[in-house]
Amino acid sequence: MIVGVIQARMGSARLPGKILKKVNGVALLGYQVERVRKSRLLDKIIVATSVLVKDDVVEKFCKTNNIEYFRGSENDVLSRYYECAQKYNADVVVRLTADCPLSDPKIIDDTIKFYIDTKVDYVANTVPPETSKYPDGFDVEVFSMEALKKAYEKANDSHDREHVTFYFWKYNNGFKTAQLYNSKNYSKYRLTVDYPEDFEVVEFVIKELKKRNSFGHLNEIIEIIDANPDIKAKNSKYYSGIGWKN
Question: How many CB atoms lie within 10 A of CB 63?
Fold first, then answer.
């Protein structure tokens, strides 16, 4: 069972409530789930949010839109993932985050295939970030339930438990890891939603795709950004207005 778990919460310090901000009347999380559902290899998709009262609205959104959900610890996200994966009998877990509304199902499937082919414990496309050729916002991480259980039992640092997969790749903990290669280097692009400017970029892309009546895989999204200088300036992770760093 390959289970996609979308990590979601309302408590963003930089852009509160961002995952339910709407474009054309649809919440960003709705766009993401709709896109992730196009994956051919995911057997199940779960939105994993926290037990905090402020995330009741995420549960309500999931119920209204027929999306399966799980609630767990706010800060110990590693335990949230482990308990969610355990509940849904996952053999393989695909980690996605709810600030990536333009997730590409083709990249999700490519990452899963690469994980299966390489027979490692952990595969990602944007990790480690120093060697990634994918944009922020198209992140996919795939790992075994066995590896997740080991991390859940052995990771002690609160930072590692908050960020879920640090224990796999950031240290020499004995996990076999691999990174999905991309022939074109799109690492300078940014399609995650952390700041108001990010939302403007994603909103523009979603509206442009609707005009074109197009789904919008990665290459087309990059083409849309490159064709619009103002959007391209706000998109870059080098954007000086808020001091993003490479």
Answer: 11
